[in-house]
Amino acid sequence: MALRPILEFPDPRLRTVAKPVTAFDAELKTLTEDMIETMYEAEGIGLAASQIDVHKRVLVIDVSEEKDSPQVFINPTFDILDQETQDYDEGCLSVPGFYETVSRPRRVLIKAQNVEGDAFEIDADGILAICIQHEIDHLDGKLFVDYISKLKRDRIRSKLEKAHRKSA
Ligand code: K1U
Ligand code: ZN
Predict the structure, then answer these.
(1) Less Cβ crowding at N or C end of the chain, within 10 Å?
(2) Which residues have their alpha-adjacent CB atom under 5 A from ion ligand 2?
(3) Beta bridge partners of residue 58, listed in sequence order
């Protein structure tokens, strides 16, 4: 297993739309193992392959208290089950240090495949429903900062660009 570097906003590669997975092979298994290790090391509750510059429709999530229940979602989609929304102060490993309130549908039906290619569904609410929507946004080249005002987004962009210049 290996840690993979995480791209940070405003890196344009985060805007790439990921392609569906068609090969359920050893390379995919290694990718998911690396993503789980990278998510835990970064202390995140989710990670999309797009964030490590791999533009395939692959996500990992672990919303358990003990951080011992990683879930892998290949080619995930969701249907909204409840039009009611919930607000949550979202963070993002690609936008480190910033949290903003985002409103999303509170209950969704997740449809995905596992690493072997078998289809499954999960009726999700709470943090899992929020996290899967945030991660699927990554696969579509979208970030949580796209839901906030341009003024706030531009402020975050310039602070991160300054931090990147300092660390270069
Ligand atoms: O996609 C990512 O960058 C991972 C992101 C997932 C996420 C967090 C909060 C709301 C929606 C999606 C993170 O894990 S950022 C870290 C974080 O916010 C967090 C970490 C531990 C517990 C709770 C939140
Ligand atoms: Zn994110």
Answers:
(1) C
(2) 92
(3) 74
Please report where in the chains the tokens 């995919």 appear, as a residue: 28
Relative to the alpha carbon of 99, which ligand is closest?
1
Cβ-in-10-Å burial (0-12, 13-18, 19+) of 104 comes to buried
Residue 155: which H helix or E strand, with range?
helix 150-167
Please report which confidence band the pLDDT of residue 31 belongs to, taking 50, 70 and 90 as the band edges: very high
Q: Which residues form ligand 1's pocket by a CB distance below 6 Å?
A: 43-48, 88, 90-94, 130-131, 134-135, 138
Mutate to test the pocket of ligand 1, among 38, 45, 103, 143 (most ligand atoms within 8 A of CB): 45
- 76, 140 Cβ separation under 8 angstroms: no
Structure token digits, residue 129: 């429903």
Which amino acids are annotated catalytic? 135
pLDDT in tens, 7-30: 999 999 999 999 999 999 999 999
